[in-house]
Amino acid sequence: MHPDLEKLIVLQQHDVEARRLREEMVALPKQVAQLQTKAAALAGQRAVVVDLLAKEEALRRRQESDVKDQQAKIEKTRKKVEGATVAAHVTAFEHEIAFAKGEIAKLEDAELESMERTEELEAQKRVADKAVAEAEANLASASAKSAETVAADKLLLAAVEVKRTAQRALIGETALSIYDRIAKAKGTGVAEALNQKCMACQMMFRPQRWNDLRNRDNDAEMMTCESCGRLLYYDPARDSPQRKVVEVESIAARIVRGL
Ligand SMILES: [Zn+2]
Questions:
Q1: In a 3-state reduction of DSSP, which class is residue 194?
Q2: How far away, in angstroms, is 236 Cα from ligand 1 center?
Q3: Tens-of-pLDDT digits for all 259 residues of the chain?
Q4: Which residues, at least 6 apart from 51, have a Cβ–Cβ distance to it below 8 Å?
Q5: Cα 11 to ligand 1 centroid, rounded to whole Å
Q6: Could you tell me the distance, in angstroms and rounded to a whole number, from the CA of residue 222 to the centre of ligand 1?
Q7: Looking at residue 235, what is its pLDDT?
Q8: How far is the CA of 184 from the centre of ligand 1 (A)?
Q9: How far is the CA of 224 from the centre of ligand 1 (A)?
């Protein structure tokens, strides 16, 4: 394998890791923000229920006070009945009393209906309380975890950047510029050629090109995938078993050993 290609594979590992860390540092706070929005929405729904409960209670207080007013009116009218001397007046007062009693019955029915609504709202509030508590607990734990992970990622990223810079200094300018150009456009600049395919874009190689790729010597120019443009490397240790004659340490294993 071309010596630069081997170094580019290591560089790509650093680049992929740096990108993963950067993406995680952006994604985690976004997830926390989503949980925050959800918790706020649930708290809003709960507040609506609490507000409706308060309205029902205020309504019943008014109804109870109206009942008392009607009872006082009945009491007053009864006294008028006792003092009345004209039959027509007695009849009129008794009408008033009957009317007030009717009003009290209506108010008491309305009060019962309000109590039923309160019961239903209280059940809704219990569900809302639980949902809000769960959302807040989720938010708190995700928020703490995110802060912890992002802080760790910052340190990891700084370390990867140091390794990246050191690795780039080892690679020839031409290889590096091809790599940078493709990596910028495609996310990665180097791809493994395995089982006659580019593992990045899955394009099949023509047999002649495949043979050429497998039998290159180290000084030959690096080959790129005709479809995606990535620099290709071939790892005999990972090629189809029937073609493998002797055990060869895989390039990945060798790189890991060397790190
Ligand atoms: Zn390709």
A1: strand
A2: 18
A3: 788 999 999 999 999 999 999 999 999 999 999 999 999 999 999 999 999 999 999 999 999 999 999 999 999 999 999 999 999 999 999 999 999 999 999 999 999 999 999 999 999 999 999 999 999 999 999 999 999 999 999 999 999 999 999 999 999 998 999 999 999 999 999 999 999 999 999 999 999 999 999 888 777 788 999 999 999 999 888 876 555 455 567 777 777 776 6
A4: none
A5: 18
A6: 14
A7: 87
A8: 15
A9: 8
Q: How far apart are CA 35 and CA 139, in angstroms?
A: 6
Write out the two tokens for 152.
């760790």
Q: Which residues, in sequence order, are CB contacts of 77 under 8 Å at separation 6+?
A: 93, 96, 97, 100
User: Is there a contact between 247 and 5 (Cβ–Cβ < 8 Å)?
Assistant: no
**10-169 carries CATH number 1.20.120.520:** no
CA of 201 relative to ligand 1 center, distance in Å? 4
Domain edges within the chain: 10-169, 173-258
With CA atoms as reference, report the closest residue to 103 among 83, 144, 73.
73
Q: In 3D, which of 194, 193, 249 has the Cα closest to residue 225?
A: 193
Ligand 1 centroid to Cα of residue 203, in Å, is 6
Distance 237 CA to ligand 1 centre (A): 20
Q: How far is the CA of 146 from the centre of ligand 1 (A)?
A: 36
**C-alpha dist (Å) from residue 242 to 81, 207, 237, 252:** 116, 17, 12, 20
CA of 248 to the centre of ligand 1 (A): 25
- Residues β-bridged to residue 224: 231
Q: E strand or H helix at 150, and its extent?
A: helix 87-169
